[in-house]
Write a structure and sequence with these properties.
Layout (H helix, E strand, L loop, with lengths): L1 H19 L4 E8 L4 E3 L3 E8 L6 E10 L6 E9 L5 E9 L15 E12 L5 E9 L5 E3 L1 E10 L7
Antiparallel strand pairs: 1-10, 2-9, 3-8, 4-7, 4-10, 5-6, 5-8
């Protein structure tokens, strides 16, 4: 019984160590695409709280795709709305597979996860809640095979190194 208690304490310490190693993370969240079928009119929206207006940040888009996804890339329409309503729109391509068709994302089984840098060294001019909206920009009305979309904000490391 004592060994089980010691194992439990060890696992808690280990888990705490893994979660605290990501000190640069400001925001990191995934949202599921229902049925892994993303309609062209559906928006994936993240509400990102920003407090630090002095620190630059990196913005990353994260994709979990099924290996049955029929394309090697994903085009996204990105809209960032800052507190006060100023909107910035952009188009962004994420390459999910190499020219030979091998998935670039990591993972076992039928789902691969890929993280792609959307912007580096972003300066948030005002604090508050930023709304990040992502919309698929592929030709399909319903894009099958995209399981989850994630958005991550992390502190940019001075000197340009990640």
């Amino acid at each position: 019984m004592k060994q089980a208690g010691n194992l439990f304490i060890f696992l808690i310490i280990l888990l705490t160590g893994f979660t605290s190693c990501d000190s640069g993370r400001v925001f990191d969240k995934y949202l599921e695409i229902p049925g892994a079928a993303w309609h062209k009119d559906s928006l994936v929206v993240f509400d990102v709280p920003v407090e630090d207006t002095l620190q630059n940040h990196n913005l990353l888009i994260q994709i979990r795709n099924k290996t049955s996804y029929p394309y090697s890339n994903l085009w996204l329409f990105v809209e960032i709305t800052q507190p006060g309503g100023k909107v910035q729109r952009d188009t962004f391509e994420i390459v999910l597979a190499d020219p030979a068709g091998r998935w670039l994302g990591k993972g076992f089984g039928g789902v691969k996860t890929l993280q792609s840098v959307y912007r580096r060294n972003v300066y948030f001019p005002i604090s508050g809640e930023y709304k990040i909206s992502l919309q698929q920009g592929m030709r399909d009305d319903v894009l099958k095979g995209i399981h989850d979309i994630g958005f991550r904000v992390e502190k940019a490391v001075k000197g340009g190194k990640e």
